[in-house]
Amino acid sequence: MEILAFGVQADERPLIERAFEGYHDVHCLDVFLTEDTALIAAGHEIISTSVNAVLDHRVLQILAAGGTRMIAQRSTGFNNIDLEVAERLGLTVARVSYYSPYSVAEFAWTLAMAVNRRIVRASNRTRDFDFRLDGLMGRDLRGRTAGVLGTGKIGEAFTRIAHGFGMKLLGWDVAENPACVDLGMRYVEKERLFAESDLISLHVPLLPATRHVVDATALKAMKDDAILVNSSRGGLVDTDALVTELRAGRFTGVGLDVYEAEAGLFFLDKSLEVVEDDTLARLVTFPNVVVTSHQAYYTADAVGQIVDTTLRNVLDYTAGRRSENVLVPRTG
Length: 332
Fold this sequence. Notes:
- By secondary structure, the protein is of the alpha/beta class.
- The chain has helices spanning 13-20, 57-65, 83-88, 101-116, 119-127, 153-164, 178-182, 190-196, 216-221, 239-247, 278-283, 300-319, and strands at residues 2-5, 25-28, 46-49, 70-73, 92-94, 145-149, 168-172, 186-187, 199-202, 227-230, 253-256, 289-291, 326-328.
- The chain is 34% helix and 15% strand.
- Strand 3, helix 2 and strand 4 (70-73) form a beta-alpha-beta unit.
């Protein structure tokens, strides 16, 4: 059986091909799954998609009409898939429930330190042989407060690093993580976390209840010199409200690895095009903002685990097995 994999990055391709060798043929495409590309999947019972694929009702209908029966998503998040429509069309959907939490947690800290110590500005200067220190002053994080929204596996890994820095720890989640409590974390209401934290990092999934959890009210409650990091999902932050606060000169720094309108932009080369997203265009002009292209998960360790789990999901489907990774089970 040939499996069609959409949205495959160049570094990811050999890992996928090597993992599937001896099991199934896999054809890797660098194009993302959208309504315009869905027809390519015709005749393929199984396809694999990336987190930036668009799997709305129209795309799912095209896939089902073309003979697709199984979608193996290469990510933990699945907010890009209309699961109700998939179930109605008889499409099996599986995801990757777990991969290295350290990849994302460590990258979130990379963003935090980059904006705190002005690393991008310093690097750009030294390329021009400008070695002044003006405007590069950061601050120690030891003794300051880290606020962690979402203390699952990734949030816990982030918390352990914060503890290593000697920071005070505040957390917010639907349930307390005993490992974080053992590190000295105090769980508080998110309003208090926003108001008291010097560094805020987001590690919650994107759900209706968490969409724009960082809204205009939350942003205004934050300290003027706070650092905000989002390496989870772009929709957690009201970007227009964030731009408003940045224009007012607030925040030491903002590190964003995700953006709520990133579909059709991230993972693609848009350098020769006019980007029509005025919010993103304004966002990247702020000197205290670092935006990266959804790469927090992108380590050999994490991607290897994602690929291996995707293979297991495909093998489970062909064998008629069901695992904890299945979002919509096989019906036939």
